[in-house]
From TrEMBL:
<keyword id="KW-0173">Coenzyme A biosynthesis</keyword>
<dbReference type="InterPro" id="IPR043129">
    <property type="entry name" value="ATPase_NBD"/>
</dbReference>
<protein>
    <recommendedName>
        <fullName>Type III pantothenate kinase</fullName>
        <ecNumber>2.7.1.33</ecNumber>
    </recommendedName>
</protein>
<keyword id="KW-0067">ATP-binding</keyword>
<dbReference type="GO" id="GO:0005737">
    <property type="term" value="C:cytoplasm"/>
</dbReference>
<feature type="binding site">
    <location>
        <position position="129"/>
    </location>
    <ligand>
        <name>K(+)</name>
    </ligand>
</feature>
<keyword id="KW-0547">Nucleotide-binding</keyword>
<comment type="similarity">
    <text>Belongs to the type III pantothenate kinase family.</text>
</comment>
<dbReference type="GO" id="GO:0004594">
    <property type="term" value="F:pantothenate kinase activity"/>
</dbReference>
<comment type="function">
    <text>Catalyzes the phosphorylation of pantothenate (Pan), the first step in CoA biosynthesis.</text>
</comment>
<dbReference type="GO" id="GO:0015937">
    <property type="term" value="P:coenzyme A biosynthetic process"/>
</dbReference>
<dbReference type="GO" id="GO:0046872">
    <property type="term" value="F:metal ion binding"/>
</dbReference>
<keyword id="KW-0630">Potassium</keyword>
<feature type="binding site">
    <location>
        <position position="100"/>
    </location>
    <ligand>
        <name>substrate</name>
    </ligand>
</feature>
<keyword id="KW-0479">Metal-binding</keyword>
<comment type="pathway">
    <text>Cofactor biosynthesis; coenzyme A biosynthesis; CoA from (R)-pantothenate: step 1/5.</text>
</comment>
<feature type="binding site">
    <location>
        <begin position="6"/>
        <end position="13"/>
    </location>
    <ligand>
        <name>ATP</name>
    </ligand>
</feature>
Length: 255
């Protein structure tokens, strides 16, 4: 078995693979102050509840966009799983041709998303990951990673209204019935959800023009993808496990 770990700014997602098959996946909060032993307890409990033996884990791969947590999770793997994990970063074979000005700058989650999408779909394509931030990753017809766009995530945007405007409450990220809200909560939900869908549409439209690829496929992933995908025609498919799949592929390429 192989353990794939994606450390995002909000959630740490873990996947347990047996060859190409995802047997289990788990989602933890990204707690920057948690210790090696605290993460060890979580992993121990999750494995125990799922009847996974640590002894069966032959290797671990990690992608992280939260530098302060990397050493903690690496140390946890060594101490509680007995494996030195592979880190997605410089020196690792991804098979991806990165056209970023500085390839080291690209988030590891964006890299593994792109690797998985190229394997699973026909290029050209765009991956939209609705996480803490929403990222757009553009892949051309020859499977080159071109770059993309980064926008504030749905959660961050919603939180900003609450934090910066005294009379705006904290709201649930839920789709309202109408775009014309007749109370504060509905008005905020309308603005956030429908505004976000419009933003995604606008960016995808510009990407298609800039890449001269009107037929390009748009794949959505990340915790909040289903909320927005229903509100726009521009998303072709939701693939919630794209990041884990990318980690599995990169792991195979470095065995
Ligand atoms: N299965 C899910 N259903 C609903 N919301 C989710 C789910 N998974 C994650 N979320 C929410 O989506 C947001 C982004 O999560 P995620 O995609 O894991 O972000 P990141 O990769 O930045 O950690 C968070 O607010 C999280 O609570
Ligand atoms: C853009 C991101 C913050 C998205 O992270 P996430 O929302 O998945 O937590 C992350 O991919 C990142 O820190 N990237 C580095 C900058 C870049 O990709 O150019
Ligand atoms: K992510």
């Amino acid at each position: 078995m192989m353990l794939a770990v994606d450390i995002g700014n909000t959630n740490i997602v873990l996947g347990v693979y047996k060859k190409r098959e995802l047997l289990h996946h788990f989602r933890l909060s990204t707690a920057r102050q948690s210790t090696v032993d605290e993460y060890g307890v979580l992993i121990h409990n999750l494995f125990h509840m799922s009847d996974i033996s640590v002894k069966d884990v032959e290797g671990v791969i990690i992608s992280s966009v939260v530098p302060p947590l990397v050493q903690t999770i690496v140390d946890m793997c060594v101490k509680y799983i007995g494996k030195d994990p592979l880190l997605v970063g410089p020196g690792i074979k991804t098979g991806l041709n990165l056209r970023y000005e500085n390839p080291r700058e690209v988030g590891a989650d964006r890299i593994v998303n792109a690797v998985a999408a190229i394997e699973q779909y026909k290029c050209p394509l765009v991956v939209v990951d609705f996480g803490t931030a929403t990222t757009f990753d553009c892949i051309d017809g020859d499977a080159n990673y071109l770059g993309g766009a980064i926008v504030p995530g749905l959660g961050i945007s919603t939180e900003a209204l609450y934090q910066r405007a005294s009379k705006l409450p904290r709201i649930e990220l839920e789709k309202p019935k109408k775009v014309i809200g007749r109370n504060t909560v509905h008005a905020m939900q309308a603005g956030i959800i429908f505004g976000y869908a419009g933003q995604v549409e606008g960016i995808v439209k510009r990407i298609k023009i800039e890449m001269n690829a009107p037929e390009l496929k748009v794949i959505a992933t990340g915790g909040l993808a289903p909320l927005i995908a229903g509100e726009t025609e521009c998303i072709d498919e939701i693939n919630p496990l794209l990041t884990l799949e990318g980690l599995r592929i990169v792991y195979e390429r470095n065995k």
